[in-house]
């Protein structure tokens, strides 16, 4: 049982870390820099750890930049406040992401550029063969170590891990929790110590200071991914410039222009 649960928690944390570190903070926001070689290594690890639900950096970045610009307004690709419900929000997210990724939807010019690109790996990661192979591989530890068939209900979460993390953040982070700052949206901080999505659930802090690398803003808040990235910087794997450290780096992400202002609590 311990092995199955460790596998589940390990996959969860590695997958959500690559999403917040590589796709979100690096790909969409450029909160830090890295060499082309490091970018390839981390892109490969994103592919490996997201596995069956690997998300394309370009599709992710454009979708996310649209979210910041239209947060909780009618053009927000994933707001619980402009959707009919949880399922509707996720169908809209998936449809828009797929359209952006395939090129069927032409994004606004201001949302494009600056994301990692590795066409060969993206092609492999997006293929059904790869997704099915990862999906089948996840079942192996369950067949060997699960003490009861009920453990198999965890398997679908492995298959859809990437979008599942997105759904939790997009829904809970704009619906449940407290607000530190007045922003032009309904973003919230859901957990003072975000051990579930490694910092992504500090949505209110993140929408207020969109380029700040540390998603925690109060002394009693803790953003796990930030500290891992600090270690990466100490190791020389990523670079955080003075401007980036201060949250003043050049940005592709614009603050919300929706008029849905809500104050702090
Ligand atoms: Zn963001
Ligand atoms: Zn948000």
Structure write-up:
By secondary structure, the chain is mostly helical. It has a domain of 177 residues. The radius of gyration is 18 Å and the shape is globular. It is 52% helix and 0% strand. The chain is built from 11 helices and no strands.
The poorly predicted ranges are: none
> Number of helix segments?
11
Question: Which class do the helix and strand fractions yield?
Answer: mainly alpha
Q: Which series of helices and strands comes N to C?
A: HHHHHHHHHHH
Distance between the termini: 42 Å
Question: What percentage of amino acids are in beta strands?
Answer: under 5%
Outline, from the CA principal axes?
globular
Query: Sheet bearing the most strands, described?
Result: none
Chain oligomer state: single chain
Helix content: 40-55%
Quick one: how many beta strands?
Answer: 0
What keywords describe this structure?
single chain; globular; binds zinc ion; 0% strand; 265 residues; mainly alpha
What is the topology?
Elements: H1 2-28, H2 36-50, H3 57-70, H4 86-102, H5 119-126, H6 128-145, H7 155-159, H8 161-172, H9 203-208, H10 224-235, H11 242-245
Bound molecules: zinc ion (ZN) (2 copies).
One zinc ion binds at residues 24, 28-29, 64, 68, 206.
State the gist of this model:
The chain is an all-alpha fold and 265 residues long. It is 52% helix and 0% strand.
